[in-house]
# Entry
Amino acid sequence: MIKAFETSGGTPVFQIPIEAFPGLLTYAYLVVHRDYRVLVDTGSGFGEAVDQLIDGIYQAGRDVRGKSFSLEDLTHVFISHGHIDHYGGLGEIKTRTRAIVGVHELDRRNITSFEERRTLGLGTLESYLIQAGVDGEKRDSMLDFYRFTMDLFKSVEVDFGFEEIEMQLGPFRFLHVPGHSAGHVLIQIDDIVFCGDHVLTDITPHQAPEQLSSWCGLNHYLRSLDLMESWLGEIKFGLCGHKKVITDIPARIAEIKLMHRHRLNEVRSFFRSPNTIDSLSVALFGNANGFDALLAIEEAGAHVEYLYQRGLLRIINYNQYSNGNKPVAFLYQISSG
# Structure
């Protein structure tokens, strides 16, 4: 069901639920502020997601204006970050509205050069999985899930980047918080912040190593949590891309930081003996299947990368790897001292 909120300045905000993929619920938001009629995120575009989004906008319009409200009435579309469950519906939306589209510059290529990024990313991912110690059959399965996303979207032009408008547009303020994605932004109006996937209730946002994508990785993410804390000001609660509303953002940030500290300690303990990232992912998350297995290997790798960057882990079989050779499975071990 659509939920309605109101900012401290009286601006109505509507939360539109969308089944991005089977079993994955994503939220888009409609914000109606004077001459600004803004859609935050567009869902995945998969299955019935676009129809659910359009129906939600129509219903929200009736609630706020007492009459129908359609895509044609939108003035802007803001993309919180460049993951397909949040921008995949944009291609269809663009054919039905004159709204101008904004995304942070570091996630712009995800949308405007989708085919190029996915194709090149496939090779990067395959090398990473080999280095993580993922065997052939399991690796092929993960790569198949990655390839599946290539058919879900076609490149779409966007109209502006948030940096080029100096991170502010009318009543909206933006903050760049890389980590979960390179160009993730928070979007604030009055006392509400749209968190995207930067901070979520119940779960910690997925992390992938910077080895796979610049500006991602746990180091960037933890720094962005600190930045968010100092930026909050009078913001009272957060509306997220998934899960429930966050009513105490500082407390939730503290919980997420604590979880990562615990996980980093787990990782260090695991590598008292030489082992691979793949074995770590099984130890942390069990024998996941399908797309969950890919998420698990990325999450494990993000924590290994964080420790390795700080000299707390070392690769003990680095001599098997040299320039010109194919990637090999790296064995990590805790550094002495």
